[in-house]
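Predict structure. Chain length: 191.
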Amino acid sequence: ATCVVVLVFFFLMNGDHRDLHSFTTRRSSDLELFFPFIFSLLIIIFVLFTNFFLRALDRFLGKGLDILTILEYLVLNLAWIVSLSVPMAVLIATLMSFGRMSEDNEITAMRASGISTLTIIRPALIFGILVGTALVLFNNFIQPDMNFRARSEEHTSELQSQAYLVCRLLLEKKNTAPPTHPPPPPHTVHH
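Prediction complete.
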């Protein structure tokens, strides 16, 4: 708060009110993009993860897998879900931010006060470039490793579940097999 007061005082003393508007615009646009981005990202991840979990549920039930293996498989599959969710979250955040600014006639007021269109959209461009760069790095370095580990975990869990089923079948067969008793002695006839 002290920093904002000092900046406002500095801009007012210099007499350049455009910089004050630009500073306020950048500050509010940054916040207006960030919170809708986080909110929509969490919702999209939840929806996609729920869909994935319900489709993969049959792989877990009745297979004898421990909970850590299941959790590791689910966490490893979050990589592709995040890769799909981030661009949609950026789109939703941008639409929400500029839609609200347009509804409140803030864009018209900024344009009427002499702020250029580039200055208005600059925070969204910077935000998009930062998120895009982070997503490219994530997709090139983290996601391939997580996908590989998820597929190998899936293969391992399939082998574990097959071994579990074979052991269970053998135990059931052993329990249901008729007991083996020694053959009765031959009947001898006594005269």
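Summary: The two ends are 118 Å apart (CA to CA).
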